[in-house]
Amino acid sequence: MTLGRYATSAAVALLCHGAAATSLSAQKAKAAAGAPNTTAMLTALDTKADHYADVAKQIWGFAEVGFMEVKSTALLQSELKTAGFTITAGVAGEPTAFVAEYGSGKPVIALLGEFDALPGLSQDAAPSRNPLIAGGPGHGCGHHLFGTASTAAAIALKDWMQTNNVKGTLRMIGTPAEEGGSGKVYMVRDGVFNDVDAVIAWHPGDENSITGERTMANISGKFHFKGISAHAAAAPERGRSALDGVEVMNVMSNYLREHIPDGTRIHYVITDGGRAPNVVPDEAEVYYYVRHVDMNVVNDVWSRVVNAAKGAAVGTGTTYELQLTGSVYSLLPNETLAKVQQRMLERVGGYTLTPAERTFAEQLQKSPQFMPQPLTNTALIKPLIIGAAGSASTDVGDVSWVVPTVQLSAATWVPGTAAHSWQAVAAGGMSIGAKGMMVAAKTMALTGAELFATPATIAAAKAELDTRRGAGFTYSTVLGTQKPALDYRKGSVPAANK
């Protein structure tokens, strides 16, 4: 009887084990199959393509610079709120930053969106130079497309989650002041990404590819010199020129170029050089950037630039104050996520130019300093390459050191277009920009769906991040505990555009 009882128990255990094994096999099969019903998600994005093109064109017209993107952030937040997201605005001490959230629990997957413009790049959506506002800002890096595509992808992904009863938390994080303001750095520092499992981003460009290279880390800041004003002809001996301090600092910094590691970049602009030649200027300012792929090199070279400021102040009898405006890490690629996004980008594919778009592109390619590439490149998907050194900087870099992050580039500009150019503004304000934007939106949505459906991919991406950043890594920033430099673009926007 006792033996029979044990035999019965063993049989039940065997049946239970078999059921569990069957259940586990079913789970693995489901995970291997990837995200369900994503075709409908792509169709929904196609249906709303004209609407999102209009949203992007409105932000293109606002052309608001870093930490001043009031209308732009309001429009994106309105789109997300209408779609059913819960909005938290003003995060990390940045009035135009926001987090839009849907769902609950794990995993937590975030999409990033930017929306700041660049000073001095105002331009009509035309293939010849034609500023809309003299000296005004323009979307020379395509962030009007960036924020809109991310919003479109988030809404499509949220609807897919609802339809398929997918569990987890989806966030769209609106990140201001990428252009020199390091908006995401303050978000990372203040814990906005602490519980996020994976981040999906993109950036406008002139090709369709996955961002597998390491970008450049940087530190930037404004050196404000103070001296003593005097009549430049009648009493020059009584003056101490703040502009002299700036110029002597620049001379010393330029001599550094011979003695710094290859690949380092130092650039500056004099943002205030005085008001009249016959007045010894008692205030002057110069705005510096230092870049390199390795943050350790950036820190070393930056300290030498600061020493140049100190020496210039001593030598000219002036003083200076330093306002750090930003600092970002290099982008840390995640091959696990990049392979997923590459598959999704290949599924979406590129696009071909219409006859009217081709005429526009051909005219634009004739503009000065343009380096034309084949117009057929908009239809191509570049193969995945991981680990090459890049040349630009982005505050997505800081995010990538704390959360597994993936980013793609979509062809929103005429092939051969340089970023931060009026040509980028022109293409970004017409249908070429809108078409590339939807390639990005679809790829991001598909990538998000795949990650929600395959938690093992997220686990592998986290393990890769731990390996790439090395044992004992702790995130920190040279910005320390300072507040965001909300006024770093002060004076860069003509009164007519404020």
From TrEMBL:
Every Peptidase M20 dimerisation domain range: 219-312
Sorted UniProt keywords: Hydrolase, Signal
Xref: InterPro entries: Amidohydrolase, Aminobenzoyl-glu_utiliz_pB, Bact_exopeptidase_dim_dom, Peptidase_M20, Peptidase_M20/M20A_hydrolases, Peptidase_M20_dimer
Signal sequence residues: 1-21
Pfam families in the record: M20_dimer, Peptidase_M20
Keyword Signal: yes
Gene Ontology process terms (BP): folic acid catabolic process
An annotated GO cellular component: cytoplasm
Hydrolase is among the record's keywords: yes
GO MF assignments: dipeptidase activity; para-aminobenzoyl-glutamate hydrolase activity
SUPFAM superfamilies noted in UniProt: Bacterial exopeptidase dimerisation domain, Zn-dependent exopeptidases
Xref: Gene3D superfamilies: 3.30.70.360, Zn peptidases (3.40.630.10)
Protein name: Amidohydrolase
